[in-house]
């Protein structure tokens, strides 16, 4: 067994242990659900963020080894976004932040549910660090693409990131969790294709909530 395989095995064990910690924290949150607790919210957020990073690292390892390919299914998009908003609402509430979603009724998409859930949860976790009070998950069809967007009401992305995205596309990140999350999102988007069209990501500012807007375009 080589070092990358050993590291992947250790990350998997860490992820399982962290899952138990997160479940315990969530149970505490349920017991204190009538009280807004910023410290508990921070603890929940950091634990989930670490878990999301471990999932991302394991997924990147499996993609690199050719062990992970998208399982494309027909997905009820509104239900999908509802479940994601519920998964993140307790942590957000304890941080004084609301998570909401918008989708056309009856909207159907074709994508790997697990991969896209991992990507969006990672993006929401990152958004909780920078938003002021709101995060919105939105779905719509644009130019024959299903567009899944995460908006916040923070200060938005640095202009340098907006300008650089056209030249970086699937470039590997140099440093930082944000770059790792964006690289993972871009990689997963590119894994979804329809004929000659591939998925891609876009970064923008001043969209629905006035802050940052991260969108994933799936053909």
Automatic annotation (TrEMBL):
Entry keywords, A to Z: Kinase, Phosphoprotein, Transferase
InterPro entries recorded: HATPase_C_sf, HATPase_dom, His_kinase_dom
Pfam name, any one: HATPase_c
Keyword Isomerase: no
PROSITE patterns documented for this protein: HIS_KIN (PS50109)
Domain spans labelled Histidine kinase: 9-219
Record-level Gene Ontology MF annotations: phosphorelay sensor kinase activity
Protein name listed in UniProt: HAMP domain-containing histidine kinase
Species whose genome carries this gene: Candidatus Thiodiazotropha lotti
């Amino acid at each position: 067994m080589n070092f990358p395989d050993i590291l992947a095995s250790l990350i998997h064990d860490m992820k399982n242990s962290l899952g138990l910690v997160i479940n315990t924290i969530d149970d505490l949150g349920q017991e204190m659900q009538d009280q807004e607790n910023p410290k508990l919210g921070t603890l929940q957020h950091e634990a989930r963020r670490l878990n999301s990073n471990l999932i991302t690292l394991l997924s990147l390892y499996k993609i690199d080894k050719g062990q992970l390919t998208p399982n494309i299914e027909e997905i009820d998009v509104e239900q999908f976004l509802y479940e994601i908003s519920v998964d993140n609402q307790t942590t957000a509430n304890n941080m004084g932040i609301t998570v909401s979603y918008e989708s056309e009724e009856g909207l159907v998409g074709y994508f790997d549910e697990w991969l896209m859930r991992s990507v969006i949860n990672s993006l929401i976790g990152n958004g909780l660090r920078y938003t002021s009070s709101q995060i919105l998950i939105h779905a719509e069809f644009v130019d024959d693409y299903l567009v899944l967007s995460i908006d916040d009401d923070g200060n938005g992305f640095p202009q340098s990131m907006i300008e650089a995205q056209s030249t970086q596309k699937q470039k590997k990140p140099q440093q930082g969790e944000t770059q790792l999350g964006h690289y993972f999102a871009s990689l997963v988007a590119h894994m979804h294709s329809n004929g000659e069209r591939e998925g891609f990501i876009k970064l923008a500012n001043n969209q629905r909530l006035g802050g940052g807007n991260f969108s994933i375009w799936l053909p």
